Amino acid sequence: MSLRLQLFVITAALIVLESASYAKPAPVVYYPVGATNAVPAMVWLHGYRSFPGALSDKEYFQRVADRLQIAVVGIPGTTTMPDETLVWSEEPAADHHYIQEVLAAVGQKYKLNLERTGVFGFSQGAVVAADIASRYPTSYRGALILSPGAITDPKPATIATESHKLQMYVAVCGAQEHPMNVETMRHYAKQLRKLGAKIVTKEYEGMKDHTRPPDFKERFPEWASQILGLEGNGR
Q1: pLDDT tens by residue, 89-116
Q2: What contacts 199, CB < 8 A, 6 or more positions away?
Q3: Contacts of 7 (CB under 8 A, 6+ apart)
Q4: Are 125 and 46 within 8 A, CB to CB?
Q5: pTM for this structure?
Q6: Which of 23, 116, 217, 229 could lock 233 by a disulfide, CB 3.0 to 4.6 Å apart?
């Protein structure tokens, strides 16, 4: 274990102990109006200390939910900081099991087809999305990876399975973002291809800010459909 990782694990453990009394906000859920059957879900994993992040755009994500007949679910990070902001543990097993517990709880109120679930995340959330989707391919159809970057090194799966061949990933970042973000995206793309997953990548020329791509709203329905296997893809 590297010194950086050791320090992160120690710090994370202290944070968990110090922040145990802080209550987490509820998940954010956009559910298609009038849906009667269980619907697929795209699960949003926010960036470092930025919950709910993109999902603050209520009108947009409700329109997407209605149009695609999917649920869009934003989950607060695993750890609450002393200032009540939220971060992810960056330990794939812990993050995955926590996300699954939250989805099961959300499923008590909303009808979700958890066999057709994708994840999408930005920055730290993108790293978590890529790691858990690749490590638990029977739980996630794939992931949308937006400008990935985190404290610890990427931890994607290293052993290919048949389930990886059924997955779809989209990975994007700004071509002029911090080199770490660009390199992390390329690292995931290379590893996911080795696993046999389908992946589409794009580096946006001229984009240097660490933010979602300029055409995110236009492309998100298309990306979500590809990941979830909608529109007659039969996955």
Answers
A1: 999 999 999 999 999 999 999 999 999 9
A2: 168, 169, 170, 171, 189, 192, 193
A3: none
A4: yes
A5: 0.89
A6: 229
